[in-house]
Design goal:
Layout: H1 9-15, H2 26-55, H3 62-85, H4 97-129, H5 140-159, H6 183-218, H7 222-261, H8 268-280, H9 284-292, H10 294-321, H11 325-358
Helix pairs in contact: 2-3, 2-10, 3-4, 4-5, 4-6, 4-7, 6-7, 7-8, 7-9, 9-10
Length: 359
Amino acid sequence: MDCHYNENISFFYNLSKKNISDTWRTKDVVVVSLGLLVCFFVIFANILVMMAIFMNRRFHYPIYYLLGNLAAADLFSGISYLYLMFHTGPWTIKLSIYQWFVRQGLIDTSLTASVINLMAIALERHQTIFTMQLHSKMTNHRVVLLIIGIWLIAIVMGLVPTMGWHCVCNIRKCSNMAPLYSRSYLVFWAVLNLLTFTVMVAVYTRIFIYVRRKNHRMSQHTSQVKHKETVFNLMKTVVMILGCFVVCWTPGLVLLLLDGLCESCDVLTYEKFFLVLAECNSFMNPIIYSYRDKDMRDTFKRILCYPCRRSQQTGEHSGVRFNTLEQEARRARDGGDEQANGGQVVLKEGEKMLDSSES
């Protein structure tokens, strides 16, 4: 078996007929500029979500911890795409083989973390809804262990191609979209994620059927109706997150599957578009939270308006400390008037006491 670890990236890209420009074209500048803009928005928005969950005690429940971990995965995705933007276009030629694997591994890790986290959320909702609870009784210790397990699996999955499942030693098996990845790995990756999506959709479908059957039983009591509406609204938010994720990532995964199974298919034409679509998913969740969850929306406002309130408070304190001479004179005059009025009150009270004693 002949390995090509000493070859540069151009060697593999030429084999896959994926052209790399030596100079910056207008198209490259536009793609990188838009990509950087989206990345910064993704990073800012998901940091905002994590801060909101940390600051508001109403969000200190397992479901929100998992949503916070999903925001962390989206944050990691934004950082991964930011790294990609600085190592794409004409910069790709300068990469070594291991640098290229790092670039792709970061994206694979972020996607895996998001998928597994969504699966954990689906199972948590399944457990709580079927017992008609709003929040799971899972302990914080178990939630932490679950989150650690999610990231360990994600990191391992991101390292799989680097550890040997690539085409550096078998260039005839190289894919077109990811020229150093084996076609068999792309098939495995795409099928695994598409099956996971299918399982999650099946779980939420079962939950909705169950909730609909329970509706008429709970309509007799007002407290139960309010509880049902709260549970159902949270379910809608989670389903919107899942639906957005599936819509944004499924086209790219199907394209990877075609790349792995069909050597003659023209997958490169749609690659950039589906990559941007997948990247946009990372900032959709904060928008969904703002639209669906009033508590989350109010917490966002508190965080964003904190610098304004801080500056107003500082201005108020400085106004008290640094009074003008006219203000000081007015305060002294008002204080003198208060003392005089107080003296008159005391004299009147004394006169009343004398009159009562004489009588």
